[in-house]
Amino acid sequence: MLTQYNAGSALVRVVVLRTCFRLRIVLFVLCCWLAFLGRVCWAASSETPGALGDSSLARVLERGVLLWGGDLQGGEPYVFPDRENPHRLVGFEVEILDAIGRRLGVETRFVQNDWSTLLASLERGNFDVAVNGIEVTPARQAAYALTRPYASFRLSLLTHQALVRDYTSLAALRGRRVGVLANSLAHDLVRGEPEVHVVLYEGVDEPLTDVEVGRLDAVVTDDIIARRYLPRHPSVAEAAVLATGSYSMVVRREDQALHAALDRALSELEQGGELGQILERWEVAHPVENPQELPPPVTPSLPSQMGLFLRGAGVTLLISTLAMLLAVVGGFCLSLARQFGGRVLAAAAQLYVEVFRGTPVLLQLYVLYYGLAPLIAMDALTTAVVGLGMNYAAYEAELYRAGLQAVPRGQEEAALALGMPRWLALRRIVLPQAIRVALPGMANDFIALLKDSSIVSVITVVELTKQMTITAVDLRSWVLPGALCAALYLAMSVPLSRFAAWLERRLGAGQ
Amino acid sequence: MRDHEIARLDRVTVETPNLRLLDSVSLTLHRGEIVAVVGPSGSGKTTLLRTLNYLTPITSGWIDVAGFRLVPGMSERRNARLLCRLRQSVGMVFQHFHLFPHLSILENLVEAPSRLRRLDPKRAQELAYEGLDRLGLLHVAHAYPRRLSGGEQQRVALLRALMMEPEVLLLDEPTSALDAGSMVQVCHLLQEFRSRGKAVLLVTHQAQLVTTLATRVAVLVGGRLVAEGKTEAMYPSGPGAPYLGTTTNAGE
Questions:
Q1: HSE (CB half, 13 Å, CA atoms) of B94?
Q2: Does residue A119 contact residue A235 with C-beta atoms inside 8 Å?
Q3: Helices marked H in A48-156
Q4: Can you tell me the distance from the alpha carbon of A266 to that of A148, in angstroms, rounded to the nearest whole number?
Q5: pLDDT tens figures, A189-211
Q6: How many helices (DSSP H) and strands (DSSP E) are in chain A?
Q7: CB contact (8 A) between residue B100 and residue A414
Q8: Measured between alpha carbons, how far is A378 from A215 in angstroms, rounded to an integer?
Q9: What angle do the packed helices A479-507 and A431-452 form, to 10 degrees?
Q10: Distance between CA A249 and CA B223 in Å, rounded?
Q11: Considering A50, A325, A332, B41, which has the largest number of Cβ atoms within 10 A of its Cβ?
């Protein structure tokens, strides 16, 4: 009975895997098609009201609410939660928007969005206007409708106090690690310079921490941000100003009526002196019409993008493989501690599993990278491997424990009855059988890890998904980079699942 | 312990928190003896076997077996070395065989002797082939346990225990899955084992096996040893219920 069942299930597994593979391709095509359809439908629906001309302003007025997108993370002094009443948002952009809202006779409502994907979300229709220190660049001017500038800034080069004299220009940063906000003007500026190692951040405070602990040589950021956050990092100082620029509000190209209304309101605010008062209150520079020294727009070429994608895939594979190795070894030790370690060790192992399985891996990475930075400043790649490895060790431990428990007690007894010491019985008789039970789950975990590793972009590692995001924002297209990214993930995960199936068949010989 | 004595249980009791599995059992096993333990299901026969290699710890009393003294409170961790050496001298065949499913039959047989008896792997394989040949099982040497019939598995399990050259063999229902022919082979094997001055303690429900193989019979009922004697005295009229002086069907 058992024999038949197991032979049968192995056969079923092989068939299921084959089917799954085909199913996956079909599903992928289906998803692409649905995404395309959704986009077409969206475009159609957004154009329906008032088929003649542009209804953008009418839509806002009818709704009575102007939706504007920005990012609260590192939002000072642009838009950030009030310290006294965190439910209320404050900042110079909040005040400018409120003033505009009053002029248009509508309420304003803030929509939270990651800074690096603000413009993509604008195009998607999540909000009417993106306002969050978005710099005027030729590329953006070509792709979107930018209002007249409402403030200006300088791009500051910040570094450790001891190095302020060395880093006076961009050229001095060659061969150095320089942190910037992903997809910002600073990002464009720095990656235009050869031989500079660019490190991408999602927030503005984190790179300053990294300069302090020595993981980063310099940061290029807007002086408005620098002024706000530098007091928290006494060892970091401004070394040079690299360029000046302006901030504009960004609306979709086709929303000309809304663009005109915003422009008009802004110019009235400026002439009435209201804008000037707001900017002065927040110590932000007035808008300048012709900012100088803007870096040339970055035009991504296909071969160079392909190289970057392959590099990203390499990073993904490297991190996943090393993290999995760590998880397997760690999980194995944990499961042994739980099963055979006595009361204290077993309780410690259980606590570990509960903590690491019960909290988000994102949180663990933040704590490991930024929280522990003053104690041990591990570099980002190491942190990624250690963080993911420690997190997955908890899952592996449970898997191996289940595997150990699945081996009948009689097997260990039979080994002991032959006179084998316990460790030999474990190594030769129990473990080989337990591994067979755990193997499908391990393969599953590895594939999950391959994809979950995309989360390490929060600690500045540029792996495959992050690379896709950067390119997609540059190109203003998510279809091709998305498909390429998906294809690369599949190219890694499909061979892996095939290998796991083969291994399972091999280890299952005779069973 | 006198020379011809190989095992002695003295007032051995095994208790779980709410159950008394063995109740003050005293029994002696001599070299060259095959003692059959009979009794109804749940009477403690298997527990009695398992106390002799300490897979089941005893609660009170003591056991001398193959030169080792077993007392209450010994543990797998603290008495690891003693228990390993004990079990190398006291082999056991389980009612459900417990062959190792991930190893071939040959590997099942040579795993323990090649690692514990420091037997040269070649020599261990020769011994395994010899044993398989005697039991007519040469053709399964490279098969895995699940491909074997119950009777084949049972004989392999017996052979696996014998490969360690034990002094005492504990057999739990060793012929339950055997056909008549295999039964004769196994009986020959055990007789030969006994004639080398070793001893066998076997639990069985088969009266036929008791009368053909056992030199003595012990009857367990409810964890107590209620009768013990020479096979001829216990089964005066050949295979059938053992004579207990009552009408209880203790031998089933």
A1: 17
A2: no
A3: 56-63, 92-104, 118-124, 138-143
A4: 7
A5: 888 888 889 999 888 888 998 99
A6: 19, 12
A7: yes
A8: 8
A9: 180
A10: 90
A11: A332
DSSP string, A62-93: HHTEEEEEE--TT-TTTSEE-SS-TTSEESHH
Per-residue tokens: A188: 């464009």
- CB neighbours of residue A477 within 10 Å: 12
* Cα dist from A127 to A131, A250, A357, whole Å: 10, 11, 36
**H/E run at residue A361:** helix A361-366
User: For residue B83, which residues of chain A lie inside 8 Å, CB to CB?
Assistant: 416
CB contact under 8 A, A418 and B94: no
Tokens of A384: 């990624």
β-pairing verdict for B34-38 and A80-81: unpaired
Q: Which letter, b or e, does each residue of A2-11 get, where b requires 16 or more Cβ atoms within 10 Å of its Cβ?
A: eeeeeeeeee
Q: Which residue has the tokens 């003591």?
A: B62
Which ipTM value was assigned to this complex? 0.92
pTM higher than 0.80 for the full model? no
Render each residue's pLDDT in chain A as its tens digit; 511 residues.
344 444 444 444 444 455 555 556 656 666 655 565 555 444 444 444 443 458 899 999 999 999 999 999 878 889 999 988 888 999 999 999 999 999 999 999 999 998 888 998 998 889 999 999 998 888 888 889 999 999 999 999 999 998 888 888 888 888 899 999 888 888 888 888 888 899 998 888 889 989 998 899 999 999 988 888 888 899 999 998 888 889 999 999 999 999 999 999 999 999 999 999 999 999 888 887 655 555 565 566 777 888 889 999 999 999 999 999 999 999 999 999 998 888 999 999 999 999 999 999 999 999 998 888 888 888 889 999 999 999 999 999 999 999 999 999 999 999 999 999 999 999 999 999 999 889 889 999 999 999 999 999 888 888 999 889 888 877 778 888 899 999 999 999 999 889 988 888 887 755 5
Q: Which residues contact A91 (CB under 8 A, 6 or more apart)?
A: A75, A76, A77, A78, A79, A80, A282
Kindly list the distances between the CA atom of residue A453 and the CA atoms of A253, A312, A423, in Å, as whole numbers in the listed order.
36, 11, 35
Does B84 contact A410 at a Cβ distance shorter than 8 Å? no
The residue in chain B having the minimum alpha-carbon distance to the alpha carbon of residue A506 is B102
Query: Other CB atoms closer than 10 Å to residue A505's CB: what's the count?
Result: 12
Out of A2, A410, A419, name the one closest to residue B98 (CB): A410
Contacts B158 to A, Cβ<8 Å: none
Contact predicate A344/A491, CB 8 Å: no
User: pLDDT tens across A212-249, in order?
Assistant: 988 999 999 999 888 888 888 999 999 988 888 899 99
Buried/exposed code over B134-165 (b: 16+ C-beta within 10 A; e: otherwise): ebebeebbebbbeebeebbbbbbbbbbbbbbb
Chain B contact residues (CB < 8 Å to A): 53, 55, 76-77, 80, 83-89, 91-92, 94, 96, 98-102, 104, 111-112, 115-116, 143-144, 146-147, 160-161, 164
- Closest Cα to residue A175, out of A194, A158, A157? A194
Residue B28 has a CB neighbour count (10 Å cut-off) of 18
Q: Which residue in chain A is spatially nearest to B112 when comparing CA positions? A: A418
B199, B29 in Cβ contact below 8 A? yes
